[in-house]
Amino acid sequence: MSSPKRLYHELLKMLKPLGKWGRPELLETLALLMTGIFGSEDVRLNRIAARVPLEVKEESVAQRFRRWLKNPRVAVRVIYDPVARQMLESLRHTRVRIQIDRSVFDDRFNTLMCSLSFHKRALPLLWMVLPHEGNATFLEKETILAHLAALLPPGLPQVIVLGDREFGTPDTMRSIQCQGWDFCLRVKGDQWAFLPDTRQWVQLRDLAPAPGQRVFLTGVTLTQSNCYGPVNFALACDPDRDDPWLIATNLSPSPRILRHYARRFGCEELFSDVKGRGFNMEASQLQHGDRFSRLLLAVALLVVWTVTVARRLRVTGAARTVSYRACETERYSLFQLGFRWLTHQLTHDYSLTPDPGFRLWSLA
Predict the structure, then answer these.
(1) Is cis: bond before 230, omega within 30 of 0?
(2) For the range 50-59, what are the long-range contacts, defined as Cβ-Cβ under 8 Å and sequence gap of 24 or more?
(3) Contacts for 194-203: CB closer than 8 Å, 24+ residues apart
(4) What domains can you pick out in the chain, each with its CATH number?
(5) What is the rounded distance in angstroms from the CA atom of residue 62 to the CA atom of residue 299?
(6) Helix (H) or strand (E) holding 89
(7) How far apart are CA 294 and CA 33, in angstroms?
(8) For the whole model, what pTM was predicted?
């Protein structure tokens, strides 16, 4: 069996349990779409069509993909939520860090996403393609946080939400705490803060430490209009930069807060994986947000599958099959390691399952 056919049948088997598909064509087309994206490392439909195992004209295949992408019966949340839940369930006995961020694809698709921090990377949990430019509104943030709450399994030891300055507002902090979660959010320097020691309002930028220094504050009240608090702060400035971190948190202020916040940059690696360094989502050529969201569904499923495979390879020590030297496997990200291993297995007609103990969508 050819490599594309093997990949297609493997993906078909993976996708079947993810929901009630109704017409089988919806499931089959998604598996074909993912097969083409994996083989071409691209999301342009004509290029994908050239990589699928169908003996029909490429334009006919591309047209089939267009119809699937605009089909309102393809419900992204119904298909993807089971995957997100299985990832989170596999980590239910550990602290879970959630990254909330926004990225613009191809200057058209303004996408708000929550992702799961995992081994210096991030895995997509849910997303919204916003119908406007610029920052997400309060209602949009509330909506995505409510969706996140519906995904998280009960009994998690701790949930920490990480976000950059767009999300470092009293309204977002209040929403996160109402869910019973913790937060480490970067705040803009022009925000006003009331210090209990001096009993004065000051701008946070005036409290920023010198390069290489750290400052920790407790019991701060944020903004004169909101009077939200008490909030703690971890303030730090890199020795080689003049852009300090002003991190608000409801946790005890300590160097650990800075380490928590540093995990936020895993979402930047995720966006790189789905953009230029991975599946080239910026070149989609789509015009409608709902269609882009369905395309992102196919890419997100591939990313999670690839990373869960790579995680199992690292745990079992089988990662060295992608390199002549075992130590070299550590220089690959989980995404690149999984992608290289799966490509190698397809090329040599080997199994796409790392070992009998492998559990799909599990990060344990």
Answers:
(1) yes
(2) 51/4, 52/4, 52/8, 53/2, 53/4, 53/5, 53/8
(3) 194/220, 194/221, 194/222, 194/224, 194/227, 194/229, 195/220, 196/220, 196/221, 196/230
(4) 3-74+290-342 (no CATH), 77-270 (3.90.350.10)
(5) 17
(6) helix 76-89
(7) 11
(8) 0.93
> Element (H or E) spanning 173, and its range?
helix 170-178
For residue 73 the two structure tokens come to: 């019966």
Task: Tell me the Cα Rg of the chain.
Answer: 22
Task: Give the Cα separation of 173 and 181 in Å (integer).
Answer: 10
- Give the SS3 label for residue 217: strand
pLDDT in tens, 123-171: 999 999 999 999 999 999 999 999 999 999 998 999 999 999 999 999 9
362 contacts: CB under 8 Å, gap ≥ 6: 86, 87, 90, 308
Quick check: 348 and 329 in contact, CB under 8 A? Answer: no
CA dihedral sign of residues 135, 140, 141, 145: negative
Q: Residue 324's pLDDT is what?
A: 46
Token look-up 């953009």 returns 275
E strands, the chain, in order: 96-105, 109-118, 121-130, 159-163, 182-186, 192-195, 200-203, 214-222, 228-236, 245-249
SS3 call for 75? coil
